[in-house]
Design brief:
This protein is α/β, with parallel strands linked by helices and 274 residues long. It is 41% helix and 16% strand.
Length: 274
């Protein structure tokens, strides 16, 4: 098994809003072209710790990235590291904390916004530092990186849903409408990605509560959605999903050698073998 993979992280999107606001993603699922799942994020339900969890498989209590103010390079082995080390191409269009984790910390816009280095684990990157950086710009950035660099693994990370939640609360029209706009942005690019053979996972790092915050155990903070698209996925119900296993799942889908735990039951070959 060896596929090209795109991971889309919709920062701060909780499961409840993901379940009803993402019309295009659910239309693909209803047409038999994808599947929808739910899982709990790790704790604390905060962004930087969970970027690290999604991209290395390490829980915050193990990685040491236990809150957003831990500003340093990751000490874990990320998907970028695995892919680069095995001759695959990588790219990221993401919030600047991703740059700090996997390229250099602290982030300096004039130095790090545009990144191109064939000797780096992230070989091509375009990073932003304002939470209200428009999602339509972000998805355009990601598509430009994809066309220019033909990455085997591409991270696309948007912040507008999270920003709306912090400003207006997770029960607000602004929060729900930010999710709907992200769905529309994905509708512009997802069909082409799938047509070119990419396997696509869309998920969130954490959710959002009515207070406009997150970090704890409330369902709206911790329960997040996940959509899977592409023939490499099994598209069958899975009883219990664990966020730390998503990294290994994508590494397996990429055909990489690794020792990370993963969900074989999410993968077409894994389900066929069982």
């Amino acid at each position: 098994m060896s596929h090209r993979v795109i991971l889309v992280v919709l920062d701060g999107l909780n499961h409840a809003v993901g379940r009803h606001a993402m019309g295009h993603l659910h239309a693909l699922c209803e047409a038999g072209r994808g599947s929808f799942h739910a899982l709990n994020c790790e704790l604390p339900a905060m962004s930087r710790p969970l970027y690290e969890c999604l991209l290395t498989g390490d829980r915050p209590v193990d990685s040491g990235v236990v809150h957003n103010q831990v500003v340093r390079r990751s000490t874990g082995t990320s998907l970028f590291d695995l892919a680069f080390g095995q001759g695959r191409r990588t790219a990221a269009a993401a919030y600047h904390w991703v740059s700090e984790l996997y390229i250099e910390a602290p982030f300096v816009p004039a130095r790090h916004r545009f990144h191109q280095n064939t000797e780096s684990a992230i070989q091509a990157g375009l990073f932003y530092w304002q939470d209200h950086y428009p999602d339509d710009h972000l998805f355009s950035d990601a598509e430009a990186l994809r066309r220019l660099n033909a990455p085997d693994f591409l991270l696309v990370h948007s912040m507008n849903v999270d920003d709306a939640g912090h400003r207006h609360g997770g029960g607000s029209p602004q929060y729900r409408n930010a999710a709907r706009r992200a769905d529309c942005a994905l509708a512009d690019y997802l069909p082409q990605w799938l047509a070119e053979g990419y396997q696509v996972m869309v998920t969130a790092d954490h959710g959002m509560n009515a207070d406009g915050s997150h970090s704890g155990l409330l369902e709206e903070e911790r329960r997040v959605p996940m959509w899977l698209f592409g023939e490499g996925f099994a598209h069958a119900p899975v009883a219990s999903l664990q966020q730390p296993r998503l990294c290994g799942t994508l590494a397996t889908l990429l055909g990489l050698e690794h020792d990370k735990p993963y969900h074989a039951e999410l993968l077409a070959e894994g389900r066929a073998a069982s």
